[in-house]
Amino acid sequence: MVRCAVPRVGNAFPVFSVWGGRKFNAQLNWAYTRRNIDGIFDHQDSNGGGGTITNGDTQWMTAGSGLLHIEAPPEHLVVSGGLFHGLQLWVNLPAKDKMMAPRYQDIRGGSVQLLSTPDGGALLRVIAGELDGHAGPGITHTPITMVHATIAPGAELTLPWREDFNGLAYVLAGRGSVGPDRRPVHTGQTAVFGAGSSLTVRADEKQDSHTPDLEVVLLGGQPIREPMAHYGPFVMNTKDELMQAFEDFQKGRLGTVPAVHGMTASGPQD
Questions:
Q1: CA-to-CA distance for 264 and 244, rounded, in angstroms?
Q2: Per the count of CB atoms within 10 A, which of 41, 75, 104, 199 is most buried?
């Protein structure tokens, strides 16, 4: 069974947009990954993590016990204008890991596991987790698989998938179909797969003039199945824990961001 939906499923929140934020944000008790397709993005946090990601790079930040961070396109891109195309995914942490030490992972495009289908119709980039014995560089705290697939017009991709995982496909660009009954999907849509041991995605024979291939992110993991209470950037298990998180933030317990990586409190600087 396949169900099409807006891009928000279970414990994952993909966000597809242009970012221009210039303020420090507090984050607590979850992990997020940003996959950069085109453009440049600067990141800095109070745990010492950060850097610049560009085409094909991924950053994976685990907020854990809490931190402050700032992220934005560099000043020269804001001034001159240009394309920024990316995907952000929020991943809830299980209760036992919510107060772990924060961590930042800088995953360059050249370090991901590259695979292709036997007919050459699809290129796969395994960013995190494992796919049919091939592991990606991203380190996660619950079993998760994240794959970016480029599928040529008319090609079909069927991947083995763990039966204890949920599964979804988010379309970054192009048109195609999912599942054995070929439910149609297009840019900006998410398909949620039902129970099974494989995921199937097919690219339409004809794509839009500005999109030569079907670009899709395939995601899945073991459901946590714990109560979740969230408000703004804080994700906890109970309302009492949320109140404690806000108190910690207001009292400055989440740290301060040092002026490194070309960033200041007002945003990135050249």
A1: 28
A2: 199
Collapsing DSSP to helix, strand or coil, 49 comes out as coil
Q: How confident is the model over 40-50, as pLDDT tens digits?
A: 878 787 887 77
CA proximity to 141, closest of 89, 96, 88: 96
Structure tokens at 265: 């409190």
Which contiguous run of DSSP H or E holds residue 21? Answer: none
Residue 36's pLDDT band (cuts 50, 70, 90): low
257 or 264, which is more confident: 257
At residue 3 the predicted structure's pLDDT band, cuts being 50, 70 and 90, is very low
Distance CA 270, CA 262 (A): 6
| Among the listed residues 81, 92, 102, the one whose alpha carbon sits nearest the alpha carbon of residue 39 | 81
Radius of gyration from C-alpha coordinates of the chain: 19
CA 96, 98, 100, 106 dihedral sign is positive
pLDDT(181) > 70: yes
Alpha carbon separation from 190 to 16, 67, 148, 171, 182 (Å, rounded)? 11, 30, 14, 6, 14
Structure tokens of 1?
């069974």
Task: Pick the closest to residue 127 from 146, 103, 142, 144 (CA basis).
Answer: 146
Question: At a CB cut-off of 8 Å and minimum separation 6, what does 117 contact?
Answer: 124, 155, 157
Q: Which residues contact 79 (CB under 8 A, 6 or more apart)?
A: none
The Cα angle at residue 232 between residues 230 and 170, in degrees rounded to 5: 80
Question: Above 80 in pLDDT, residue 182?
Answer: yes
Q: What domains can you pick out in the chain, each with its CATH number?
A: 109-221 (2.60.120.10)
Look at residue 184 and tell me whether its pLDDT is greater than 60. yes
